[in-house]
């Protein structure tokens, strides 16, 4: 691996840093964006039970808010339990915006790496081509320098694409996952509002 990095020249180090950052972000998002952590299965039922029991205290609301992103949205509804339907929905939407921002954390960076990696590979290719042309002189070409320039060009192009492709796949996957989580949270919050306002049995 070290031999490949040396053969690829100094531009490969930029791609190596990008690959490390992308891998770290992918692992972090895989661990964070788990359905069981974002949308606990029985949380809505538990909140409805707490509401019907009348045991709504500031401690219960704070604990619910810290339990999960869905808990944060439902806690906003509980804080406005005596308010009109429109006020409850507005508080839920505000809480949902904050939760969405948290769920989307690092996705912009991941998308940037997916877009930038091929360009960084292309930059390495240009550096390699410059070395190839630099190997030409009046007495002919230097085979060693020519071979090094070709290796720089090919390694950087290949490495750039190798980083960009999986990063783009994970970026699209995480984006779709976050969108589905947000929609499901909104649906569960609306169900709770309907329960509170006796629209559902």
UniProtKB/TrEMBL annotation:
GO terms for biological process: protein import. Its main location: membrane. The keyword Transmembrane helix applies. The keyword Membrane applies. Keywords: Cell membrane, Membrane, Protein transport, Transmembrane, Transmembrane helix, Transport. Residues 68-186 form the MotA/TolQ/ExbB proton channel domain. It comes from Duganella vulcania. Belongs to the exbB/tolQ family. This is MotA/TolQ/ExbB proton channel family protein. One of its GO terms (cellular component) is plasma membrane. The chain crosses the membrane at residues 12-32, 106-130, 150-171. It is found in: Cell membrane; Membrane. It is a multi-pass membrane protein. Signal peptide: none annotated. It comes from the Bacteria. PANTHER family: MOTA_TOLQ_EXBB PROTON CHANNEL DOMAIN-CONTAINING PROTEIN (PTHR30625:SF11), PROTEIN TOLQ (PTHR30625).
């Amino acid at each position: 691996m070290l031999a490949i990095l040396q053969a690829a020249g100094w531009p490969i180090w930029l791609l190596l840093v990008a690959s490390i950052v992308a891998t770290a972000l992918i692992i972090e998002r895989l661990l964070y964006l788990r359905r069981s952590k974002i949308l606990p299965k029985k949380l809505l039922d538990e909140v409805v039970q707490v509401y019907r029991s009348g045991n709504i205290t500031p401690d219960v609301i704070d604990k619910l808010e810290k339990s999960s992103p869905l808990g944060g949205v439902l806690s906003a509804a509980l804080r406005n339990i005596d308010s009109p339907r429109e006020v409850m929905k507005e508080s839920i939407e505000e809480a949902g915006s904050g939760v969405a921002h948290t769920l989307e954390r690092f996705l912009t960076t991941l998308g940037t790496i997916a877009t930038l990696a091929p360009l960084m590979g292309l930059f390495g290719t240009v550096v390699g081509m410059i070395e190839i042309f630099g190997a030409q002189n009046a007495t002919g070409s230097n085979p060693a320098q020519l071979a090094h320039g070709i290796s720089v060009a090919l390694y950087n192009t290949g490495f750039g694409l190798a980083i960009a492709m999986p990063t783009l796949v994970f970026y699209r996957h995480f984006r779709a996952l976050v969108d589905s989580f947000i929609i499901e949270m909104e649906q569960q919050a609306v169900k709770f509002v309907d329960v509170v306002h006796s629209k559902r049995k």
